[in-house]
Write the structure tokens for this entry.
Amino acid sequence: MSPVAYISGRYTDYNLSKQAKPVLARPKQQIPLEMRRKRPLIPAGRTKEQMLREAVCSDAPEQALRYKGFQVIAGVDEVGRGALFGPVVAGAVILPQRTARLQRLGLRDSKQLSREEREKLDREIRKIAVACAVAEVDAAGIDTVNIYQASRLAMRLAVEGLGTQPDHLLIDALRIDHTCAQTKLIYGDSLSVSIAAASVVAKVYRDGMMRDLDRVHPQYGLASHKGYATPEHRAALQKHGPCALHRRSFAPVAKFYGAAALASALAAEHQQELDEEAMLEDEAIKEFDVCLED
């Protein structure tokens, strides 16, 4: 039986054979160092958190795409990628061209907002959005395809759950298996209103789910840490052991299933890092090829 994904109010089975296409090896090319850097450099003496708090979240990325002729732009983001418990959740949002009210309300990366701010923005986003969808891939699906591929799958399912077909996707730091034109924007949830909106609706949805599951599994304290690997959560795991909704492919959970399970989880994490690096290298080669053609 295939794992289950949840898309905008309905459950759906997904076929894992469609996912996680292997990254094919290709001849190495000499790529300039600046094209290998996939994340902006953080200025000396500053932290990533400080830099992101000062970032201006606006509709500039959307306006740049409209200048190129795209009109129906969907922002896409995921939450819960680093958690030990529960699903990874993705949101996809198509906003109208005028987003000044959302910007006045302080729309930005959901992690930079309080619960009250997120929930207020979630209501406003859902009220004005042209289309909005949320999708999830559960712990079993994550353990099957790894968290990187599960995040990409959840994003794709969220896009497919939109009632309106976008002509361009703005995605936070990833590309997905979708025929629609797409732009990967590093730190996109701090720079693009569409991606920030997707981040907010996904986080409000997932946080609400964790509070509901806290009543089912009160021993873990899910309402406070939302399934992430906090000291409180690790201590609860040590005392009570994991449940069926924990991610067995994550090392802090896998160790409870024996040395072989832990070794497998560590090997899977290493392979996932290699896959991500290979994908980034492949993108860099494509960008370099374009530069050479120009």
